[in-house]
Design goal:
Length: 248
């Protein structure tokens, strides 16, 4: 019987050339005679020219990636600068009751976010009548506690939208749970809003928003203080449980 002959396929040729790097050294004349499609129209070019064209395209792609990396690096530097300015402003707040307003105003001005608001619960009694500590339902607190990462997406009628100066202009939202420290219970909720329905989207990265929440939570821990430790300067010591007026 005549053995069955298998036709040579393109894959066979490709594998042969890939595994026989000295083929064109032994058949150098092919480099000058092989004609390939240029990849841009119907013009035929030599193998060397086609290889050069492919290298140019690869280099162009790498250059584009480098430009993107540089741009992202510059964007990250700008964000870091804004974060530093915002954090410095929080450290300079003299009275704890001013912190929620400073946090929200700084987010709007430093990060160009159209609207921001914040509510905190479980605060020291002397802050219980402040605007940032009232008007939060139990449902809103339960929802905030359920968030392990910030919510980003469309406005679906969340209660927190009503905390904003212009609720009707909030088409997309970021809802950020506030904790005094990582791993501790949620003690507040921050809402960021935009009239652009695409500004905050589900699936977007939330690392930056999480950092905002962590820094805000650390600053707002002053609202929960029950006393202030003072150095012993020989003066009178405030009665136990008394909040130092300088902290408010």
């Amino acid at each position: 019987m005549t053995p069955t002959e298998h036709p040579i396929t393109e894959d066979d040729i490709a594998n042969f050339l890939a595994n026989t790097p000295d083929f064109f050294e032994r058949h150098a004349e092919l480099l000058a005679t092989v004609q390939l499609s240029s990849g841009h129209g119907t013009r035929a070019v030599s193998l060397q020219e086609r290889q050069a064209g492919m290298l140019r395209e690869k280099i162009k792609g790498l250059e584009t990636r480098v430009v993107d990396m540089i741009r992202h690096g510059q964007d990250n530097v700008l964000i870091a600068d804004k974060m530093q300015r915002w954090t410095r402003r929080l450290l300079q707040v003299a009275h704890a009751r001013d912190l929620p307003g400073v946090i929200a105003d700084g987010i709007v001005s430093d990060f160009q976010i159209p609207q921001a608001a914040i509510k905190v619960w479980g605060v020291n009694g002397i802050f219980s009548d402040e605007a940032f500590a009232i008007g939060v339902s139990e449902d809103a607190k339960i929802f905030a506690t359920s968030l392990t990462t910030p919510y980003c997406g469309v406005n679906s009628g969340f209660e927190a939208v009503n905390w904003l100066p212009e609720p009707d202009a909030a088409l997309s939202l970021a809802l950020i749970p506030i904790r005094a420290a990582v791993g501790e219970p949620v003690v507040g909720l921050m809402v960021l809003a935009s009239p652009d329905a695409e500004r905050f989207q589900s699936g977007m990265g939330t690392d930056f928003l999480e950092r905002l929440g962590e820094l805000a939570g650390a600053a707002l821990s002053r609202l929960r203080s029950q006393g202030t430790t003072r150095p012993n300067t020989g003066g009178a010591t405030p009665p136990a449980g008394t909040l130092d007026p300088a902290a408010t």
